[in-house]
User: Fold these one by one.
Assistant:
Number 1:
Amino acid sequence: MVVDGNSSGNNDFRYSIRIPYVRTGTQIALVVMMNPATANNLVSDSTINNVLTRIYNERREVKEVIIVNLYPLYETYSSELELHQQQSELNFERISLLLNTVDFAVLGWGKPKGASARKLNEIKYHNHALKVISMLQQADIPAFKVGELREDLYPKHLGRAPFATLISEINLDYLSKKLRGIL
């Protein structure tokens, strides 16, 4: 496992976490979630465990999973997310570099619990999602989701979706258009 992260002031940031499977495979999956909760190079968490189990079971061709987030800030409670512009820009730069190494992406950033439209605007939530979608489109990376979009806009949080709900392709053009309609 390889973790790319740093600290700034009282905040900790994780840009990516790379986890190889102990099996033969040919593909690398990029998973895009909302923000890191607690997983680091020493300890996993339930969301990471659920993501790894899902991809391991559903996508036998995957040899490694790289997990990134819309926000690199460690925060257990999504309602407490903050915008850290400098780290966000660095996060997008690092995601962009990773796109050269992955075969497909699974989107699962959900929606911050109880977040108002004002809060989503304040932290530039839809802008961050649109930025990642645009990067995936430009790199021609196929994208997937679990189940249906929440509120026809948010890919379900991967740590909470039941395993019976399978990974399916997502139409990035459709999602991009919906997000642009909000901005």
Note: The mean pLDDT is 93.
Number 2:
Amino acid sequence: MKRQLQATLAACAAAPYLTALFMLIIDLLRCSEPEVENALDFLIVLPIGTFRLPYFGLPLLCVGGLLAFSLHVLKCEAWWPPVVSGAVLGSYFGGWVLSEIFVKFPGLIVTGGLAGAACGWIYWWIGVHEESAGTLP
């Protein structure tokens, strides 16, 4: 269970950074005048993610911890249950928790879902995959 806890912490810490990254990528794809003009503009992800980490880090950690505990109790070792549940949780956080900026950027449900799926994969890779493979010390 120690690995699942570490995996939950890692996934929840990565969530705001991934959400900011996917927001920039979707903005780049859909806007005629995107905020990103060169590769260094992607560094804006760092302050945005750091600012958002305390804002929705604790609620995400609580709900993500319950989700990780449920997956552990159900002994889900496949990759898709954490990825799908992470996508659902990310879409929820993107659409409801961040609803104050949802009006300006309606793609938050999509970016939250993508970031949640990536975080679910991070959880699976650290907490489940490596445990079943036995490659970590």
Note: The mean pLDDT is 81.
